[in-house]
Amino acid sequence: MSWKKLIRTKSIERILREAGYRNASKKGALSRKLGVLDLTGLGVAAILGAGVFSTIGNAAADGGPAVTLLFIFTGIACAFSALCYAEFASAIPTAGSAYTYAYASFGELVAWIIGWDLIMEYAIGNIAVAISWSEYFTGWISQYGVNVPAYLTMDFLSASRGYDQVHPLIVKGKTLVELAGTQFPLNTIKAYQAWAEAPRFFGIPIVCDLPALFITVLITWIVFIGIEESRKISNILVALKLIVVFLVIIAGISYINPSNWVPFAPNGLTGILKGVSGVFFAYIGFDAISTTAEECKDPQRDLPKGMIYSLVICTVLYVLVALVLTGIVNYQKLGVADPLAFIFGPEGAHIPWLTAIIEVSAIIALSTVLLVFQIGQPRIWMVMSRDGLLPPIFSSIHKKYRTPWFSTLVAGAVVAMPSLFMNLTEVTDLTSIGTLFAFILVCAGILKFELKGQRLNNKFKTPYISSKYVFPILVVICLAVVILWFPERMNSFFSMTSQEYPHLPKWEILLTKIPMVLFLILIGGLTYLCFVKSLSLIPVLGLTSCSYLMTELGITNWIRFGLWLIAGLFIYFLYGVKNSKLNNPT
Questions:
Q1: Closest CA to 426 of 277, 548, 206
Q2: What DSSP character marks residue 182?
Q3: Would you tell me how many other CB atoms lie within 10 Å of the CB of residue 413?
Q4: For the residues of 514-548, what is the DSSP string, one character each?
Q5: Crossing angle, helix 514-533 and helix 429-451, to 10 degrees?
Q6: Angle 290-419-370 (CA atoms, 0-180°, nearest 5)?
Q7: Is residue 144 exposed (0-12), middle (13-18) or buried (19+ Cβ within 10 Å)?
Q8: Which of 135, 251, 326, 386 sits most deeply, having the most CB atoms within 10 A of its CB?
Q9: Is the separation of the CB atoms in 410 and 394 below 8 Å?
Q10: pLDDT tens digits, the chain, 586 residues: what are they?
Q11: Of 225, 243, 201, 277, which Cα lies nearest the Cα of 400?
Q12: What does the alpha-carbon distance between residue 123 and residue 422 come to, in Å, rounded to a whole number?
């Protein structure tokens, strides 16, 4: 097998022809129903979800009021990437998202890698959302006397761990009342009860998360029956969600105590950056808009607008919500699973009716995130199948509903089964690192076309700003800021000891520095290329900012991400490379 075979690219004209873009009414084509408002709604549905109702709390607890700066920085980083996405989406209005863009710019092997990466991004992200939805839903209905048994609302691993922690103390005579809230959090007590009370099958406890299965099946059915139905439901739920977020902001302003904003960054830069994963997790949805390209009425015009509008709207709302959160209560109290409900509870503004509305809206918000991601994942599989890298059935379109029916069902199963039985808290960072990797390749793809002297034939063009002098100057300024204002970051990088883990071997400490070393090498190369080639500044900044955010996710997630990609390469070399449609030039 030659290297040239692995890096063979597909022309934009061929991509459009094979997708049937010139003939949207042909047999097997998807139904074109989406306009700018619908696309913006899908973007808001995906972005304004778990972040505003969940992860924003822990991020604020670590970074204090300065978490607003992290939202702004992450929003800007995503905006750079969104402009690059928009340029590609305008030039290649097909359903493959970053996978297709990589196919056109870097070739088949990189396209497969990013396609496999997107499978992980959407699947793990949705599993986490389904489990979170289950927690909110069961908590809400319990207030009305509907108590689902603990063993039907929890995964097997969590229940087992909770039992192992609590049982030894129960044997010694302790009671659950004595242990609850003192030695163990309530979730651990719940886990113990789930394991202890669960019915047995051949001695094995039957513990599963039925509500997570229920919501996944429901959303999969909605996506299966058509984009029109998905569009209508998404728009209604997004409207309700936006009303609640505006209500939170407006009602919360009068309860803000400015003294809670002092100090603004209590834990410094380190504390702010601890929230990178949670904050970025809030933004990962906007790329899902590009997967609906073949269902847009005018994708070249509407896709760029939908991406940019939804990103701007959500960034402004996240910043305002973060200011309200940290203004009503002290940041140290915000490390809770439901921060919006918490600040309007007894420890905050104490508005019971608003707390109840927020709890319901959280269920709605998580449902919309699940909906958009379940729309996106099957369409990426569909395009990979159309290229021959997955079996043909993945690109089969339902005759009545005009949706990728088999891919939709498989995507539902991939999310439903793990959410029923597995605890994925430890791997949710994989969603963020996978998305950042996709953003990096999209920005790099724009630069690749630029270096080759080619232009994308489209209706939207990323504004050109020469980076010849601007980028090197920005690099010098950032380096000076770190040296002068954050010397602890510099000292930590060059130190061979860890304050957090003092007994960590030196080789492990060295391993943790690999992401930053790779980032610095990238910066050096980009600085040279910018000065010599006068590259476009926006994709350069998008590539740089997303690469930096990846360094903050830790070496453990890099290793897990690498193992996932290696598993994908085995599939590619066993099936994809032999069945690729590029083996049959047309």
A1: 277
A2: T
A3: 13
A4: HHHHHHHHHHHHHHHHHHHH--BHHHHHHHHHHHH
A5: 20
A6: 30
A7: exposed
A8: 326
A9: yes
A10: 567 778 888 888 888 887 776 555 555 566 677 888 888 888 888 888 767 777 788 788 888 999 999 899 988 988 999 899 888 888 888 877 889 899 999 999 999 999 898 887 788 778 878 887 887 888 788 878 888 898 898 878 788 888 888 888 888 888 777 777 566 666 778 888 888 889 998 888 888 889 989 999 999 998 888 777 777 887 888 888 888 889 989 999 999 999 999 999 898 888 888 877 677 777 777 777 887 878 888 888 888 888 889 999 999 999 999 999 999 999 988 877 678 888 888 888 888 888 888 888 888 888 888 888 888 888 888 889 999 999 999 999 888 888 889 999 999 998 888 877 766 555 566 777 888 898 999 999 999 998 887 767 667 888 899 999 999 999 999 999 988 888 877 887 888 776 665 677 777 888 888 999 999 999 999 999 999 999 999 999 999 999 998 898 888 889 988 998 999 999 999 998 889 988 866 5
A11: 225
A12: 13
CB distance 49 to 366 below 8 Å:
yes
Spatial contact of 264 and 1, defined as CB atoms under 8 Å apart: no
CB 340 within 8 A of CB 321: yes
Residues in the chain: 586
Residue type, 560: R
Are 133 and 374 in contact, with CB atoms under 8 Å apart? no
- For 563, other C-beta atoms within 10 Å of its C-beta total 10
Cα 391–288–134 angle (5° rounding)? Answer: 95
Distance between CA atoms of residues 367 and 133, nearest Å: 7
